[in-house]
């Protein structure tokens, strides 16, 4: 749009709104914030794959993480409840299996109960930003500064970036697990809820175990992250290269 046309539109809008109330500072700030977001998205949308910066890969990681959360949250919720059934006698366990657990939760608390912990899952998977952002950085560094083959680059970049992800996200995963294992209460008869909000669970961990509580079980997870994700990303990238364009 040319400058004269833009000027005419602005002048026309100004004249027609002379009698309207001026926007507040909060309104202006909010509009500026939204404009910044959409401007960033627009810039990313016109960037080719080869030109997409590490930040763009990180944003894509967040979007992917939030998307998968709506599938993973109920699965992880059911898994967390089954994992805390410590009774040796199966008849004394509240759930006989995943189907029974889903059925009982849906019957007493509906889909809202099944998706208990969704917000914590979304927060946890926001840290995919560091996974995919660092994966792009390591891929570029290894490709430009070493003589490693493409599969080797995928392997090492995938493994190290996964460890970066867990170093940044692990405390939020601990809080998420604590929330998902918390009793739902009501007709389910599994006890009284302790954590109504995310920060309630985080505070409880700090109160009982201090800083160490947020990192309990980190070492096995960290050691598993490299081989599992290195192989996964190697397979993914190899298949992508093998597929016809």
Radius of gyration (CA) equals 24 Å
What composes the largest sheet? Answer: none
Strand content: under 5%
The overall pLDDT average reads: 85
Distance separating the two termini? 36 Å
Look at the helices and sheets and give the structural class: mainly alpha
Give the number of helices.
Answer: 9
Number of strands: 0
Order of helices and strands: HHHHHHHHH
Shape: elongated
Helix fraction, binned, reads over 70%
**Can you tell me the residue ranges where pLDDT is under 50 for at least 5 consecutive residues?**
2-23, 25-30, 41-49
Account of the protein in words:
With 245 residues, the chain is mainly alpha-helical. Helices cover 72% and strands 0% of the residues. It has 9 helices and no strands. Helix 3 (54-83) crosses helix 4. The longest helix has 31 residues, at 150-180. It is elongated. It starts with a helix and ends with a helix.
Keywords:
245 residues; disordered N terminus; mainly alpha; single chain
Write the layout of secondary structure elements.
Layout: H1 3-16, H2 25-45, H3 54-83, H4 98-114, H5 118-125, H6 128-145, H7 150-180, H8 198-209, H9 218-242
Helix pairs in contact: 3-4, 3-5, 3-6, 5-7, 6-7, 7-8, 7-9
Compose a concise summary of this entry.
The protein has about 240 residues and is mainly α. Helices cover about 70% and strands about 0% of the residues.
């Amino acid at each position: 749009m040319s400058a004269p046309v833009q000027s005419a539109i602005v002048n026309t809008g100004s004249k027609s709104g002379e009698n309207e109330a001026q926007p507040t500072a909060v309104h202006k700030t909010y509009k500026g914030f939204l404009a910044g977001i959409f401007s960033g998205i627009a810039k990313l949308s016109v960037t080719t794959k080869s030109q997409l910066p590490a930040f763009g890969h990180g944003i894509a990681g967040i979007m992917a993480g939030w998307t998968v959360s709506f599938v993973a949250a109920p699965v992880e919720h059911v898994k967390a409840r089954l994992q805390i059934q410590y009774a040796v006698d199966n008849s004394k366990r509240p759930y006989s299996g995943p189907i029974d657990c889903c059925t009982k939760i849906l019957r007493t608390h509906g889909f809202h109960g099944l998706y208990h912990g969704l917000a914590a899952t979304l927060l946890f998977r926001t840290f995919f930003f560091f996974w995919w952002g660092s994966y792009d950085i390591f891929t570029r560094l290894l490709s430009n500064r070493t003589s490693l083959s493409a599969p080797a680059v995928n392997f090492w970049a995938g493994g190290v970036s996964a460890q970066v992800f867990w170093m940044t996200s692990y405390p939020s995963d601990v809080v998420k697990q604590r929330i998902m294992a918390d009793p739902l209460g009501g007709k389910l008869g599994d006890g009284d809820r302790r954590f109504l909000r995310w920060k309630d669970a985080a505070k409880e961990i700090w109160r009982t175990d201090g800083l160490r509580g947020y990192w309990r079980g980190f070492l096995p997870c960290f050691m598993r992250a490299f081989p599992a994700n290195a192989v996964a990303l190697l397979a993914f990238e190899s298949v992508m290269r093998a597929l016809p364009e």
